[in-house]
Amino acid sequence: MKKLSLITALALSTISVSALASGFQGTANGGFTNGAQTVSRVADVKDFRDDQYIVLQGKIVKQLTGDEYLFRDASGEIVVEIDGEDWGGTQVGPNDEIRVFGEVDKSWRTDIDVHRVEKVQ
Question: What are phi and psi of 43, to 5 degrees?
């Protein structure tokens, strides 16, 4: 019985690794890009619900803390949280126009939990 459990666990972990390698998780390996996503304005974030998916386009003005940045578009500024893996290897400076893909987070303040960053060409 222990051997069957071990074999099952090994098989499941192999399947999980295969799924990750196939590009369905994260952006480093590629994946699906929906070109029809609407870009929103910072000024409109107040009208979004908590955890609503959002795409913003603008610039990072400055780093506030380790993973928090001040993001600005033509309509205003908002704090965005970008974890290390969410950069996907993209290097960004204050003059670079970017798109951030993430979720609205309305906890003690409203900010954006970013899942992916890409430079606008």
Answer: -60, -25
Across 19-56, b (16+ Cβ under 10 Å) vs e yields eeeeeeeebeeeeeeeeeeeebebeebeebeeeeebbb
Q: What is the distance of C-alpha 46 from the center of its chain? A: 19
Model confidence, pTM: 0.71
Give residue-wise pLDDT tens across range 64-108: 999 999 999 999 999 999 999 999 999 999 999 999 999 999 999
Task: Round to whole Å and give the CA distance between 103 and 79.
Answer: 12
Answer whether 90's CB lies under 8 Å from 82's CB. no
